[in-house]
């Protein structure tokens, strides 16, 4: 599946904040409520909620409400998309650098 | 080398814009001047410069001025940091999901 540019924009933006990355790391250990996610941060609950809204809009996390408790879960596939974006670039950059090496090696052999 | 949270913030922020990702892709094929980088985009030169400043501040690209021409180059190591950040998370998430699978399998075996 190819990611829409807007979806990648949202995902990179969501990860551009260390508190949000901290929440992603916490969710990597299992689902958590807003209160559990807020605990390690010295932030007001509305600020935590704002970060979680950004994360959910990016597709990196998903939430569900059961009674009065909203539980957040990581969407691992989303990180897979980012991983693919980076891997594709790494592969093509290495190729262009390989081509450059090859070209330089040929240049050297030319008398 | 461990990346400072602020450096990761800047790198994710730099990639949260599709025009900047397009410039990174262009530089993946080799160094380029501001004019070359601006060509595929329907943007004013000051806007292009603003994007390049964000990219350079993030460490993803580096520029050098020779005479009147400023040339931009990709800093491949920077992408390596992002790649490592994602790989570490993928590894630890898979581990916690493996633990969950193991736990569920044990549960099933309990009569």
Automatic annotation (TrEMBL), chains A, B:
<dbReference type="InterPro" id="IPR001845">
    <property type="entry name" value="HTH_ArsR_DNA-bd_dom"/>
</dbReference>
<feature type="domain" description="HTH arsR-type">
    <location>
        <begin position="1"/>
        <end position="94"/>
    </location>
</feature>
<dbReference type="Pfam" id="PF12840">
    <property type="entry name" value="HTH_20"/>
</dbReference>
<dbReference type="InterPro" id="IPR036388">
    <property type="entry name" value="WH-like_DNA-bd_sf"/>
</dbReference>
<dbReference type="InterPro" id="IPR011991">
    <property type="entry name" value="ArsR-like_HTH"/>
</dbReference>
<dbReference type="InterPro" id="IPR036390">
    <property type="entry name" value="WH_DNA-bd_sf"/>
</dbReference>
<dbReference type="GO" id="GO:0003700">
    <property type="term" value="F:DNA-binding transcription factor activity"/>
</dbReference>
<protein>
    <submittedName>
        <fullName>Metalloregulator ArsR/SmtB family transcription factor</fullName>
    </submittedName>
</protein>
């Amino acid at each position: 599946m190819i990611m829409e540019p807007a979806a990648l924009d949202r995902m990179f933006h969501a990860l551009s904040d260390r508190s949000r990355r901290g929440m992603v790391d916490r969710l990597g250990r299992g689902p958590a409520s807003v209160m559990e996610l807020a605990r390690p941060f010295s932030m007001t609950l509305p600020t935590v909620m704002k970060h979680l809204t950004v994360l959910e809009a990016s597709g990196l996390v998903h939430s569900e409400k059961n009674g009065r408790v909203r539980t957040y879960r990581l969407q691992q596939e989303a990180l897979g998309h980012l991983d693919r974006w980076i891997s594709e670039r790494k592969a093509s950059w290495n190729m262009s650098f390989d081509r450059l090496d090859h070209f330089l090696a040929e240049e050297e052999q030319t008398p």
